Amino acid sequence: MTGLFITLEGGEGAGKSTQARLLAECLRAQGHDVDLTREPGGTPGAEALRELLLFGGYGLSARAEVMAHFAARTDHVEQRIAPMLARGGVVICDRFTDSTEAYQGYGLSHGDPAMLGLIATLRGLIPVVPDLTFMLEVPPAVAQARLAGRGDGRTDRYEAEGAAFHARVAGGFDAIARRDATRCRRIDASGTTQDVQQALRDIVTPLLPHA
Ligand code: T5A
């Protein structure tokens, strides 16, 4: 893989989608070949799985839910992310494998070692690893205020979980950032959109392929 693979992670309302879009616009304006995508989703099949996972209400078993996230991811990687990286492009992905570890591993399964082991095994089957992961961090009250102001009216099953769940998810991201400290860059995302974006650009710029 010759391209650059960037992921953005963090809890809901941290500003990932906003920052991913602004970063993609900036890099495209500089002449880079950029694919902006998201998970779960990013291909027709993975978007269908997204709908099932976020809004289906089927009550999948915990292991089935993890595997469904990885089924979506496998399709996304094989059909979209890996080909783009092989062409030397920049892929910016709103959530990736770390979200499965944080949400399913720590949030839903309370850090159960068997579940974290399953996630690690499935992660090992994914042939790409992000070169850089931004962990966007905001206090829960800030995230709540941003989500309330978003006003799109559609709450997915993870967003609907309570404060204790989201605290476990935040703890999961913290554990991942400590473990993978070279790949993961923690960003205080409570500032203005522009300030956060500048922090991202300062880190990305030295890593960019020649435009
Ligand atoms: N999930 C995902 C799993 O459980 N397992 C997995 O493996 C994967 C991949 C995805 C859900 O699926 C779960 C995690 C999620 O619960 P989603 O809709 O993609 O669902 O959810 P999020 O990625 O969390 O998207 P959100 O929209 O909820 O949060 P973002 O992207 O962090 O925030 P953003 O950019 O949309 O901003 C939210 C609002 O805040 C404003 C924006 O304008 C917007 O209104 N805002 C700011 N306001 C002030 N200052 C700033 N700096 C601001 N930045 C943004």
UniProtKB/TrEMBL annotation:
<keyword id="KW-0808">Transferase</keyword>
<dbReference type="InterPro" id="IPR018094">
    <property type="entry name" value="Thymidylate_kinase"/>
</dbReference>
<dbReference type="GO" id="GO:0005524">
    <property type="term" value="F:ATP binding"/>
</dbReference>
<dbReference type="GO" id="GO:0006233">
    <property type="term" value="P:dTDP biosynthetic process"/>
</dbReference>
<dbReference type="GO" id="GO:0005829">
    <property type="term" value="C:cytosol"/>
</dbReference>
<comment type="similarity">
    <text>Belongs to the thymidylate kinase family.</text>
</comment>
<feature type="binding site">
    <location>
        <begin position="10"/>
        <end position="17"/>
    </location>
    <ligand>
        <name>ATP</name>
    </ligand>
</feature>
<dbReference type="GO" id="GO:0006235">
    <property type="term" value="P:dTTP biosynthetic process"/>
</dbReference>
<dbReference type="GO" id="GO:0006227">
    <property type="term" value="P:dUDP biosynthetic process"/>
</dbReference>
<dbReference type="Pfam" id="PF02223">
    <property type="entry name" value="Thymidylate_kin"/>
</dbReference>
<comment type="function">
    <text>Phosphorylation of dTMP to form dTDP in both de novo and salvage pathways of dTTP synthesis.</text>
</comment>
<protein>
    <recommendedName>
        <fullName>Thymidylate kinase</fullName>
        <ecNumber>2.7.4.9</ecNumber>
    </recommendedName>
</protein>
<keyword id="KW-0067">ATP-binding</keyword>
<keyword id="KW-0418">Kinase</keyword>
<dbReference type="InterPro" id="IPR027417">
    <property type="entry name" value="P-loop_NTPase"/>
</dbReference>
<dbReference type="InterPro" id="IPR039430">
    <property type="entry name" value="Thymidylate_kin-like_dom"/>
</dbReference>
<keyword id="KW-0545">Nucleotide biosynthesis</keyword>
<keyword id="KW-0547">Nucleotide-binding</keyword>
<dbReference type="InterPro" id="IPR018095">
    <property type="entry name" value="Thymidylate_kin_CS"/>
</dbReference>
<dbReference type="GO" id="GO:0004798">
    <property type="term" value="F:dTMP kinase activity"/>
</dbReference>
